[in-house]
Amino acid sequence: MKLIARLYYILILITIQNFNAQNFKIDTADHLQRKQFLTVYKEKSKTFNKGIKKYSSSENRELSKVFSAFQTSLEEDIKDRNYLFDERFISFVKEKVQMIADKNPGVRRDFNILIAKDNEPNAFNFGDNTLVVNSGLFYYLNNDNQFNGIICHEIAHAQLEHTINSILSRIRKNNDKKTEVSLLKKSANQQEKAFEMFRTMLYSNMKERREQEIRADSLGFEYYKRLGLQKVAFVSALQLLKSVDEQKPDSIYTTTYRRVFDIPNQKFKDEWLKMEDFSKYNYKLYTKKISEDSLKSHPNINLRIALLKKKLTDNDSIQNEQDATAGFKELRELAGKRIIPNYYDTEKYGLGIYKCLAILQTNPDDDFAKFYLGKFFNKIYEARKAYTLNRYLDKIDPKEQSYSYQQFLSLMWNLNLDEIQKIKNFYEKSEI
Ligand SMILES: [Zn+2]
Fold this sequence. Notes:
Strand order of the largest sheet: 1-3-2
Bound molecules: zinc ion
Number of strands: 3
Helix content: 55-70%
Low-confidence stretches: 1-25, 285-295
Structural class: mainly alpha
Oligomer: single chain
């Protein structure tokens, strides 16, 4: 590039930066933190993988292969902006971990903390000292004590080395272990697959997993007791997660579609609501599968709650729970504001539109939902043009989806490119 051109280029850059000063600041902070995290994480991973030395040398090798494939996939996942580098969330988790470790000498405190842009209330410990907390956990929990309880449970998983044990028992059982690990390696650039496979490996043995959950509850409760907080919150946190799992998904009424998709340049068309006929479908065959799958993110939660309740005295159980601190309330509010952007950043455009519709159903003037509807439809439009829509919009699957969600998917697949474009153009004019 010639000097003058380069100067010009820099000038343009500066102008753009001034225009978007606010956004730019946030993006830069986020970008720097992400970069910093990755540098530290790579180093820590190397040390961790070399340090797995408790088992036979061939098992150590297999373990470190599985972990390094997982770590590569997690790094890709981080580069894809699936995690929130917002210091407010991260330092809150850090503080809690330090507090728990201070009161429980000998437990781990050096975690790689990540906040996932995931609206499901959950947290994970990935065995290599990576602790992932979904932003949805902040949204659904009622108070700090409940949050402390969940973190104690996760630290207990780490302390009991549940991840390593699960992978190890799988390696030992599986004669064909090489295939699985090499599959993981091969799909390292398709990080989602590798990531899923890692999770499947951990969760495939349901019996083992259930036992691990009960042990993590038990040890986690011991850690929690030493914090001197209301014991009832440890149990109520689990009850809350159970109730969220059991909540019916949002239902969108046809009147909502008729209102939201009836725009000045395009009248609503009845044919959009046409659905494939699944009436001959034998739902009975699938009831068992569905009930097994429900609560899949928190297996055996009823038994876990019953076991924990036994540890409470009558006096513990009748206490009114303390309110959330101002700090926790702020994070809960932030997590609520993240719900729709989380779908956008993690490219779950179909689910994002569904959520916007649910919001617009109760609050027709919600500008934030309208604004994002435009953004989502822009992505749907691009995907439809590139024949990649099935990456972002589920196929209809009557045995897995509610009727309302199937109706939504039918409508989305019924729209043609031109119709999508008109909806996109209309909602893209929304402002927040
Ligand atoms: Zn657990």
